Structure formats: C-alpha cells, structure tokens
Amino acid sequence: MSGFLYGVALQWKLDMRSRSLLVTCYIVPLIFFLLMGGIFTSVMPEMKSTLIQSMIVMSVSMGAFIGLPPSLIETYGSDIKKVYAANGVPLYLGLVTMFISTFVHLMIACFIIVLLSPVLFDAFLPVNFTRFFCALAVYIIVSLSVGCILGLSVKNQAKLTMIAQLVFLPSIMLSGIMFPIGLLPDFLESIGRIFPAFWGYRLMLDNGFTLENLWYLALVFCAAVIVCGILLKKQGSQ
Amino acid sequence: MSAAIQVRKLTKSYGGHTVLNGLDFRIESGEIFALLGVNGAGKTTALECIEGLRKYDGGEICVNGKTGIQLQSSSLPAHIKPIEAVKLFAKWNKVQINSSMLDALGINEIEKKQYIQLSTGQKRRLHLALALIGDPDIIFLDELTAGLDVEGRLALHELIRRLKSQGKTIVLASHDMSEVETLCDRIAILNGGKIVFCGTASELTDKVGKKYFIHIKTQNGDSTLETDNIEDTLLSILGELKRENIHVLDIKVDRGTLEQHFIEMARRTEK
User: Fold this and answer.
1) What is the value of pTM for the model shown?
2) Do B91 and A88 touch (CB under 8 A)?
3) ipTM
4) What's the pLDDT band for A232 if we cut at 50, 70, 90?
C-alpha cells in the first residue's frame, strides 16, 4: 500500500510541476469562468441559478478530456510503461494515480468556482451541499473514466488533440450549459444525451440527484472501466 | 558453477517470421555474459523473453535468482526527480534504498534535477540505479553505454566489474565490441535465430581467427600483413628489412579484433 500511496502523492507533485495540467485544470477553466460568468449573468440573469453547475461542466470537461489524456499518452505511449514493467511496477499504477490526482485537481478547481460565483456574479449556491458535492464527485469520476479511454486508446498527441475535441465540444455545446437544451433541434438534443456532461449537469442541479440522472453515468463508468481494463491488458501484451 | 540462466529450445515467431529458432545456451552464476548479433538477429527478442517481458512460443527458460533490468530504450515522466523515481520503485518492490549504490552511480549529485533536464549519461545511470534497486542476482544491461562519452563509459565499466566482484551475474547486449572484449567472460553470437557461437573471446579467436596480423612501423611508413604462418613470415620480413637496411621502429602481432572475428563468424554462418 505504501508504494501505491507514494505513487499517488508523487503524481500529485508531478502534476503541479507540469504546466499543461495546471493550464487545463485551473488556468483556462477559471479564465473561462471569470469571462463567461460575467457575460452569462448580464445577458441572462436567470442563469445565476445554474452558473456554478455550468462552469463546473466546462472545467471538468476541460480537465478530463483535454488535460488527463496527454499525461496518459506520456506514460502508455512511450517507454515509461516498459520501465514500469521491467522494474515490477504494475501497469495500472500510472492510470490510477493520474486518475486520483486529476480528480483532486478538478475538485479544487470546482471548489474555487463554488466559492467565487456568489461573490463575483451573485450566483445562487446549491441548496444541498452534500448532494451537490456527491453529484460533482460522480460527474468528475465518470468524465475522467472517459478521458482514460482517450488516453489509453489514442497513440499520439496530434491525433489526441483532434479526437479529444470530438468529445469536449459536444459536451460543452450540447449539455445545456450554454443555452437551454429545449432550444436545440431534436437530433442535437439526442446527441447531447450521449455525453456524460448532459447527465452530470442535470445531476448537479438542485433536486437533480436522482436515479433518472444517475443510471446513465453509472453505465458509462462501468463500460469505461471494462474498456480501460481491456486496453491495459492489450498494452501489457504489447 | 551453477546456472543463473538456462535456455532450452527457445522459439519465437512474429506472424510467419521465425525470430528465435531453438535457442540453447546457459549462463553461469557470477559471470559477465554478452549476447551479440547483427541487427535483426533476435538478441533483443531473446533478452526480452528471458527477462519475462515478452511471451515466447516454445522451449524453456529457467532463471535462478532475482532480476534487475536496464532497457535499451527507457524513459520516465518528464518532471520526476531521480530520487523520487528511486523511492517509488523501492517502495513498490518493498526494499530499502541502498545509499552506497546511489553514491556509486552519482544519483545524489543529480537528485534535484528533473528527468527532462538530465543528460544521456545521467539518465543511463538513473535507469541502472532503478535496475539495481531490488539488489538483483542477475542484471540485464541492454546497450548500457550507448551514446556515452569515454569518461562515462569507463565509470560504468568500473561499476559492472564491481557488481561482478559482488557475485552478480550480468547479461550484456552491446554493439561495442571493445566493451564486450574488455568486460565479458563469455559471449554468445546469435544469427538467424540460433546461437552460432558460445564461449570465450579467445575461443572465438581460435575458431575463426586463423590468420595473424603483423603491423610494422619503419622509417618508410606503416604496413600490415596477414599470414597463416607467423614464424616463417616474421623471419622472412625481418631478414628482408635488414638486407634493405630499413630500421624497424615498432612491430606488433595480433590475431585480429573481436569485431573482425564477430563479422567473420556472422559471414560464415550466413552462408
């Protein structure tokens, strides 16, 4: 257990030293929050009730789909995995430690958004904090599990940049955080439902922590765990 | 001597291409053993099968002891510091860090640098340290000194000798024949997926190095002669030089380098 805990703590340190993860988990999402938070609440004052959830969906999508996968490619697309295998370190260690570390980073970024939103934009805080943070944790975990599939399945950074956008952009545009989902054409609304962001956003809204919004996220997470397991096994056999 | 590694009838194919075709050899405990072969001979595949990093199709591999592996192409996360990597691997293998080993490899001197800031030599030393963390009995070193300057190479040679003196078995894969000649007790030459020679460097010389090379330096210049009959040729040359009144400044006789013998063996077995 000591090796595992040291691995998690070390990954946290490495993330702090890596500018790319700081940019995708903190700097870009928080700049987006500061700019769009002001614009959203001035143009549509009714968004004050959903500003925190909207900005969190943006931040988590950024960290999970743009931030985490390149770090995974650095390990699993290179000789690092061979060094791990040669020295008795299990292949899953990198994946799990990066998952946990990014989870903590995203939690911190979201906590900053929750703290600043009422102060800066007069946004409404969630009514039930326990349910809200449980919903947030579930949403981050599911998003990171999808990010793990991207990082393990795509072999190079250039391809990843393109493929990650195919998940990131619809997550932002079709989840209902930019404009009400009811205003979208039916087919776009249906596409939006495929992405965890749609369900995560609903799950974090007041009275949204229900089985109706949870089952799809649970399904995605279970599928992602299986896919990641298969991808890791494939990596091992290579 | 007991066998540290015993390989019997090892086979491995990729698709329809046979890379290892019934490999048989034995590495004794405490020796430095080199696996040589031209590119594509199958030595990396053979090493990776023995190391347990690659599955093989048939045969038997018996490794008696704990192994430490330094790979030819190695990498670590860009921002990790050497001491952090050492601690991670030590904790995962549940072993204490051997500080004298870290001192010998100069890891303490670079402990504040990040991996991305290390030179090639420093990275090699770090990967060797990681391979030695678990105090292995058998150490695999793949192209350990490739890309290093003379000073770095000599320092690692010294370390390898020290490891041997501690009773470790060392399996070396290298393209540097002078390194192999200097360090290794025995060598195996792989060609076409088979061991075509296994023995000491002098045994290889006896097998393929029939010719003698006479290097003569005179006031008129340098020349090298090849001969099968050293005694007659030497007497004849020296007699002729004396008659011509040419002074011999230096004279050396050898039986060729390991590199020449290796090439000759590879050429013969390809026929």
Assistant:
1) 0.81
2) no
3) 0.83
4) very high
Say how many domains are in chain A.
1
pLDDT tens-digit map of A193-221: 999 999 999 999 988 899 999 999 999 99
DSSP letter (8 states) at residue B110? G
End-to-end CA distance of chain A: 27
Please give the C-alpha separations between residue A16 and each of A65, A103, B118, B171, B262, in angstroms, as whole numbers.
18, 13, 20, 39, 51
Give the distance, in angstroms, between the CA of residue A135 and the centroid of all CA atoms in the same chain: 13
User: Helix (H, G, I), strand (E, B), or coil: what is residue B254?
Assistant: strand
A217 CA: distance to closest CA in chain B (Å): 32
A237: closest CA of chain B, how far (Å): 8
A18 to chain B: closest CA residue: B79
**What are the structural domain ranges in chain B?**
210-254
Contacts (Cβ under 8 Å, ≥6 apart) of A168: A61, A62, A65, A66
pLDDT in tens, B80-105: 999 999 999 899 888 888 888 888 88
Q: Do A88 and B134 make contact, defined as CB atoms within 8 angstroms?
A: yes
Which residues in chain B have Cβ-Cβ distances shorter than 8 Å to A85? 53
